[in-house]
Amino acid sequence: MSDKKEPKSIERRRFLRSGMQMALAVSLGGVAGVSFLKSTSKDLVWQLDPFKCVQCGRCADKCVMTPSAVKCVHAYDLCGYCDLCGGYLKPDANARSTAAENQLCPTAAIKRKYIEEPYFEYVIEEDLCIGCAKCVAGCTSFGNGSLHLQVRHDLCKNCNDCSIARVCPADAFQRVPANTPYLIKGGFTKGGTSKDNLKKG
Ligand code: SF4
Ligand code: SF4
Ligand code: SF4
Question: 3-class DSSP state for residue 177?
Fold first, then answer.
């Protein structure tokens, strides 16, 4: 490994992270905007705290929506861009490849893309995600915990009595202000839609 190559790789990863963070911020910002237009800061919506979630799987089958309004979100600034990704590969996978039999996700909603040795990027295809939390459990157990769940407010009906909240074993669901409707992991949310908003709200 040359001394010159490492800084270049790190620079490249930083660039990728900031690009993906922007993409996520824009994506969630757009969705939050829809919610914000319809709501005042006094209105409340359901959101789950990813730091409390124990990945029980109920978000996938207890939502009134099919597929669930809960989706996986990726905090790229926490991701290790690992080749051996605990959120992507089954623990008993016999190869680090995109072959269907090696993938943990039941709907193949996670796309793996080679960046440069030894880094890979993982992108969630939300239309395919059913919110089962299998990838979240794998990433939390074997990685940095960058994959996590969020209620998407372009899909959520904001039921009076959220049917997932009723059965969540971790008590992770709570009402948050409609104009700060996401509790996203990762540094780019500091001062924005971070966990702190819950306390402020
Ligand atoms: S029901 Fe609660 S603990 Fe289970 S996956 Fe959803 S947020 Fe996590
Ligand atoms: S494993 Fe489950 S939560 Fe993760 S991307 Fe696939 S469907 Fe979504
Ligand atoms: S409020 Fe209703 S639509 Fe939204 S996550 Fe809960 S059950 Fe699903």
Answer: strand
